[in-house]
């Protein structure tokens, strides 16, 4: 009795995936504004009604494509597993940077990365939703990881600055890609392990310096007679 229901569900999931893949390729190539539902339906070999059934409308489809792209860049479940693992804080950071660099160097033509690059360079109203739904929860986990290294509380603005310093170079590789003129083309000629090792040592050195500075300032603030204790 349950077999037909499972079959229908499986067919529906396959159709949804086919639409998502087709839309991702087209959005990555021509952009959101220039990609029509008709073109997506033709690429996915489905009727127009299927797009509305699975995603509501073109806007909903694009939002789903962005979410899938962000998940390809940094999977939430994998990030939770890394942050909660028994690795040392510095080893967690090394693994994270290695994964991001590998995605940037090994998958430069993946539509997921090209869609994100387009959205970052020419943002639409969907970017804010992507930030709230996908980026913000992951940022909280990343701050926890960096807090383990620096001993800076997650709510302190200093940790947000640390997060920017660590993630920005990786995002530059991901968004810029091999075709971006200038130093990036030279960087992409290097082995991915060389790039990742450099970014890790640069990041961990900066985090350790900020950690020492933060501890020194906290000690000064705690002394009797200091401005913070008057």
Low-confidence stretches: 225-230
| Cα separation of the termini | 76 Å
- C-alpha Rg (nearest Å): 22 Å
By CATH, the superfamily of the largest domain comes out as: Tetracycline Repressor, domain 2
- The residue fraction in helices comes out at over 70%
Strand content: under 5%
CATH topology of the largest domain: Tetracycline Repressor, domain 2
Report the structural category: mainly alpha
Query: Helical stretch count?
Result: 11
Mean pLDDT: 89
Number of DSSP strand runs = 0
User: Please, how many domains?
Assistant: 2
**Biggest sheet layout:** none
CATH classification, class level of the largest domain? Mainly Alpha
Form type: elongated
Proper CATH architecture of the largest domain: Orthogonal Bundle
Order of secondary-structure elements: HHHHHHHHHHH
Report what the structure shows.
The chain folds into 2 domains: 3-56, Arc Repressor Mutant, subunit A (Orthogonal Bundle), CATH 1.10.10.60; 74-222, Tetracycline Repressor, domain 2, CATH 1.10.357. The chain has helices spanning 3-30, 37-44, 48-55, 58-73, 76-83, 89-106, 111-121, 126-150, 157-176, 183-187, 192-222. It is elongated and about 65 Å long. The chain is mainly α. The protein is 77% helix and 0% strand. It contains 11 helices and no strands. InterPro entries: Homeodomain-like_sf, HTH-type_TetR-like_transc_reg, HTH_TetR, Tet_transcr_reg_TetR-rel_C_sf, Tscrpt_reg_YbiH_C. Residues 13-73 form the HTH tetR-type domain.
SSE inventory with pairings:
Blueprint (H helix, E strand, L loop, with lengths): L2 H28 L6 H8 L3 H8 L2 H16 L2 H8 L5 H18 L4 H11 L4 H25 L6 H20 L6 H5 L4 H31 L8
Helix pairs in contact: 1-2, 1-3, 1-4, 1-7, 3-4, 4-7, 4-8, 5-8, 6-8, 6-9, 6-11, 8-9, 9-11
